[in-house]
Amino acid sequence: MKLPLDDAPKYAVDTCALTTLRRSYPPDIFMPVWDFIGELADKHVICSVDEVLEELKVQDDEVLEWAKAHPDMFEPLDSEIQLQAKKILSTHTGLYDHKKRKSSADPFLIALTVLRKCALVTEENPSTDPQRPKIPNVCRDYQVECIRLLEMLRREGLRLHRG
């Protein structure tokens, strides 16, 4: 679902940030984290692109089930996003690995953040190889803030209390 610019989300979420839920915040212990992120999705505070959903389908698990329960957070690759992704790839050709020929949401996700003027949430580290840039490298070049999932949770005020 495409949101109007005045209702733009604060964060666009990468595949690896969502899969961090499985590794670092398993639902049997951290279900409030999953619920909180679900609320952020439902309130359009976070978004992503359809390609991220496609990447999640590789591992049919609880993260995919969570994503399917929040379909409105995944924006289709409309012509505006595709045009911006094309610009990004024209200056950062190594962002997409043509040898692997698998889904690569990265250029589309970065395009979304540029267009929506929001931060990008990823667990990727910057690359030291200028021929193989990662999301943080490209975000820096486009003046897009790049943060980790935990930082987003802090900014949005998640607090877990023992009861």
Map the helices and strands.
Blueprint: E1 11-13, H1 15-24, H2 27-42, E2 46-49, H3 50-56, H4 62-68, E3 74-75, H5 79-91, H6 106-116, E4 119-121, H7 135-141, E5 146-147, H8 149-155
Parallel strand pairs: 1-2, 1-4, 2-3, 4-5
Task: Give the key terms.
163 residues, Rossmann fold, 5-stranded parallel beta sheet, disordered N terminus
Number of helices: 8
Give the helix/strand class.
Answer: alpha/beta
Arithmetic mean of pLDDT: 90
The tally of domains stands at 1
Query: What radius of gyration results from the CA coordinates?
Result: 15 Å
The proportion of residues in beta strands is 5-15%
Strand order of the main beta sheet, please?
3-2-1-4-5
How helix-rich are the residues, as a percent range?
40-55%
Given the C-alpha coordinates, what overall shape results? globular
Unreliable runs: 1-5
How many strands, what sense, and barrel or not for the largest sheet?
5 strands, parallel
CATH class: Alpha Beta
The CATH superfamily bears the name 5'-nuclease
Structure in a nutshell:
With 163 residues, this protein is of the alpha/beta class.
Question: Would you kindly provide a written description of the structure presented here, covering whatever features stand out?
Answer:
By secondary structure, the protein is α/β, with parallel strands linked by helices. It has a single domain (5-155), classed as 5'-nuclease (Rossmann fold). Helix content is 48%, strand content 9%. It has eight helices and five strands, in the order E-H-H-E-H-H-E-H-H-E-H-E-H. The longest helix has 16 residues, at 27-42.
